[in-house]
């Protein structure tokens, strides 16, 4: 910090600007909750959510719990929740966008839950039935999770199946997880894998399609 009058001016101006930004963000979040009756944001969640994109349909519910974190990147997180759908983000979850935007899409009547202290980084989750990320589950950059597929022709219509990412599981970057898959607790899925079948607890899996390659110990360490 410079000395003299410039230092004193900056010492006053910078904290004032930060307080004004925080006030603006809090007012935006209150306005969003007024506009969307199904939106609940805990007071201790980060103010940076004010620059996220919220697209909530009638009857949609989005619950953001205590201490949820996000980067202050305009449009970095998109919440897309259709009528009758529910997205729940539990305490201490972290939405990181330095590696790319996060898209959380929950279609009509579907459910998505991000567990306590989970971490998502530049990924896409699309739920037409149910997607669950367990406590301290990690989802890496470029990863895509789909709980449904697209119709191929008149004889092969859309199919769906819930996807579950276990507690302390780590899904690395550029992974694709398809419908009906369960990733076990403390499991690790390697980069650029295509996951079409369940991965057991404490298992290292990778490949296209992903297959078990080894065992993994407990991963209870902090982020």
Name a few traits of the molecule.
single chain, 223 residues, alpha/beta, UDP N-Acetylglucosamine Acyltransferase, domain 1, eight-stranded mixed β-sheet, 1 helix, 22 strands, globular
Give a written overview of the molecule.
- The protein has 223 residues and is an alpha/beta fold.
- The chain has a single domain (40-215), classed as Hexapeptide repeat proteins (UDP N-Acetylglucosamine Acyltransferase, domain 1, 3 Solenoid).
- Helices cover 14% and strands 33% of the residues.
- The chain contains one helix and 22 strands.
- Strands 4-7-10-13-16-19-21-22 form an eight-stranded mixed beta sheet, with no helix packed on it. It has a seven-stranded parallel beta sheet with strand order 1-3-6-9-12-15-18. A seven-stranded parallel beta sheet has the order 2-5-8-11-14-17-20, with no helix packed on it.
- Strand 21 (203-207) and strand 22 form a beta hairpin.
- The longest helix is centred in the first third of the chain and has 32 residues, at 4-35.
- The radius of gyration is 20 Å and the shape is globular.
- It starts with a helix and ends in an 8-residue tail after the last strand.
- The mean pLDDT is 90.
Write the layout of secondary structure elements.
Layout lengths: L3 H32 L3 E3 L11 E4 L4 E4 L4 E2 L6 E5 L4 E4 L4 E3 L5 E5 L4 E4 L4 E3 L2 E4 L2 E4 L4 E2 L4 E3 L16 E3 L4 E2 L4 E2 L4 E2 L4 E2 L4 E2 L7 E5 L2 E6 L8
Parallel strand pairs: 1-3, 2-5, 3-6, 4-7, 5-8, 6-9, 7-10, 8-11, 9-12, 10-13, 11-14, 12-15, 13-16, 14-17, 15-18, 16-19, 17-20, 19-21
Antiparallel strand pairs: 21-22
């Amino acid at each position: 910090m410079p000395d003299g009058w410039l230092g004193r001016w900056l010492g006053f101006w910078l904290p004032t600007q930060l307080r004004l930004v925080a006030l603006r963000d809090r007012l935006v979040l209150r306005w969003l909750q007024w506009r969307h009756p199904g939106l609940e944001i805990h007071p201790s969640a980060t103010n940076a959510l004010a620059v996220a994109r919220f697209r909530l349909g009638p009857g949609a519910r989005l619950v953001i719990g205590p201490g949820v974190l996000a980067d202050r990147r305009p449009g970095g997180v998109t919440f897309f929740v259709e009528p009758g759908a529910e997205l729940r983000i539990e305490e201490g979850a972290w939405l990181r966008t330095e590696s790319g935007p996060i898209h959380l899409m929950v279609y009509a009547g579907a459910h998505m839950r991000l567990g306590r202290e989970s971490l998502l980084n530049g990924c896409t989750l699309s739920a037409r039935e149910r997607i669950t990320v367990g406590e301290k589950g990690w989802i890496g950059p470029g990863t895509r999770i789909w709980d449904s597929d697209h119709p191929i022709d008149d004889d092969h219509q859309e199919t769906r199946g819930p996807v579950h990412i276990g507690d302390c599981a780590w899904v690395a970057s550029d992974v694709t997880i398809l419908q009906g898959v369960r990733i076990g607790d403390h499991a690790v899925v390697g980069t650029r894998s295509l996951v079409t079948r369940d991965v057991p607890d404490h298992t290292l899996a990778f490949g296209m399609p992903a297959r078990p390659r080894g065992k993994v110990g407990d991963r209870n360490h902090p982020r």
